[in-house]
Write a structure and sequence with these properties.
Shape: globular
Helix content: 10-25%
Number of helices: 3
Number of strands: 9
Strand content: 15-25%
Structural class: alpha/beta
Order of helices and strands: EHEHEEHEEEEE
Largest sheet: 9 strands, mixed
Radius of gyration: 17 Å
């Protein structure tokens, strides 16, 4: 039986548009939400998270947490804190997240985990999976993310969706609709190498029937 979910697909042409998508994503998030980011190195995961942090109005510059594993960005206003995690070196699981000694309550925060698929799903039954595919080659064909890490990092990244992510919703299905939105670009010289396709899939009851239209360009 498929888990209730919502889905959106957005084509992003520039890093600026990726940041804008992060700000729109912040508008649909609430405390306790878990966001898992998947994409090859340089695909734009941290750029999207930086926009998300701007949308949540949190303190501190959002940068890759590779060497510190996790950063907590407190809110400047009444919104939730942002917990930004790089799970490349994590074995996974709630216990290991708690071992990071984060000075924050995870249920009261928005938790964004890069390379989190297959590692931290037990943090929540309700998750938002964000997969960033990047254009490669002269024809700009979009391909699924694949490991492109240096040898010092374990080859744990995968393009295989989580086991509980359901099959795509048929076009004539009832319930949450599939959104396929091309983000317009104003840069005439935007090359194919800048193009990203971002697929956002909500898993669990939290995302059943959620309107993801704010993610439209």
């Amino acid at each position: 039986m498929n888990v209730p979910y919502a889905r959106a697909q957005i084509t992003v042409n520039t890093p600026e548009h990726m940041g804008d998508l992060g700000r729109r994503l912040a508008a649909v998030l609430r405390p306790g939400d878990l966001v898992l980011l998947t994409g090859e190195l340089g695909a734009g995961k941290t750029t999207l998270t930086r926009g998300l942090g701007a949308g949540l109005d949190v303190r501190g510059a959002v940068t890759s947490p590779t060497f510190v594993i996790a950063r907590v960005h407190p809110p400047l206003g009444d919104g939730p804190p942002l917990v930004h995690v790089d799970a490349y070196r994590l074995g996974g699981g709630l216990d290991e997240m708690e071992d990071l000694d984060l000075d924050v309550s995870l249920p009261e925060s928005v938790v964004v985990v890069e390379w989190g698929d297959g590692k931290v799903e037990e943090l929540s039954d309700d998750r938002l999976h964000v997969v960033i595919e990047r254009a490669v080659g002269a024809d700009g064909e979009l391909t699924a993310p694949h490991p492109a890490a240096p040898a010092a990092r374990p080859a744990t990244a995968t393009t295989t969706p989580p086991a509980d992510v359901p099959e795509p919703i048929p076009a004539n299905a009832t319930g949450p609709a599939v959104l396929d939105v091309d983000a317009a670009t104003t840069e005439a010289d935007a090359g194919a190498a800048d193009v990203r396709r971002v697929t956002v899939t909500g898993v669990g009851a939290r995302w059943a029937g959620v309107d993801l239209s704010p993610l439209e360009a």
